[in-house]
Amino acid sequence: MLHGNSVRILTGNSHPELANAVAERLNVTMTPCTVKKFSNGEISVKISESIREEDVFIIQSGCSDVNDNLMELLILISACKGAAARRITAVIPCYPYARMDKKAKSRAPITAKLVANMLAVAGCDHVITMDLHASQIQGFFDFPVDNLYSEPLMIAYIKRNIPDWQNGIVVSPDAGGAKRVTAIADKLGVEFALIHRKHSSPEKVEVLVGDVRDKVAIVVDDMIDSGRTISVAAKSLKEHGARAVYAIVSHGLLSETKMTMIEELPLEQLVVTNTIPQKQHAEGCSKLVTIDVSPTIAESIRRTHNGESISLLFGEWAEGAGA
After folding, report:
1. For the whole model, what pTM was predicted?
2. 173 partner at 20 to 30 Å CA-CA among 184, 232, 250, 282?
3. Are the beta carbons of 302 and 319 closer than 8 angstroms?
4. What's the CA gap between 254 and 246, in Å, rounded?
5. Are strands 168-172 and 269-273 parallel, antiparallel or unpaired?
6. Opening angle at CA 26, ends 24 and 30, nearest 5
7. Model confidence over 188-199: pLDDT tens digits?
8. What is the rounded distance in angstroms from the CA atom of residue 32 to the CA atom of residue 79?
């Protein structure tokens, strides 16, 4: 139930399906909003209803045409600021440029920080996002950032949909995901494994830490783009005797992934969340399965609007929402 000032939900062109699902769960009507391009590529925004002194949530994911989607979000925020909205929250299920969170080498930009600065300058008061590539991105902001986790939804999916998961092992395809994988393994009460690859030879597994023989291997990662990491992991796990291999990923970018390659991999399923539209990919891959995050996002909006804690979203409630 929503209290106080009314909630207004807007969206651009990045992921209207998710925005509509969230609005339906909150039992609110989407605020009419037109986002279009001029012939020279400039973006025009028109909000068709008054949002004065309203609590505005703009749902816009950083996917597909990431630069256009980011500009749409910034212009929508600026338009809401100029229309005297009481508070503007950017709901960004997949944060753009999240992989550029530090200087990997000399003269490299920290673009995730630049995005944070642009959101602040546009007039954003609060950000809700999901499964940030690096938690330190929250420190780039001088206003509240709520980083939601899909981990409880993943755990619920594993328990309900992966046969014999009790005899499973949760695998991180690289060293960076070790913390995420150990947390999931602990909550499931199973073992975990770690794949180590050298940057000089990313197509080859140097070390597999953990025994996967005759077990159900569940590879967990935060993002899939080209699909090479999952490909190398799946083949290596099968070579080391895994009985079955599943992959569960937070953000299914799949921008460089050939779905025929996924079909040919020794994978039972590739499970992704719908923080990014998957319709075009699902049509070309029978192994692709989507987890719905709209219940978690809708509940975070409700709790933010009512001034309630959102820590409950990281526990049993979220696992139940994955039903």
Report:
1. 0.90
2. 282
3. no
4. 17
5. unpaired
6. 55
7. 999 999 988 765
8. 13
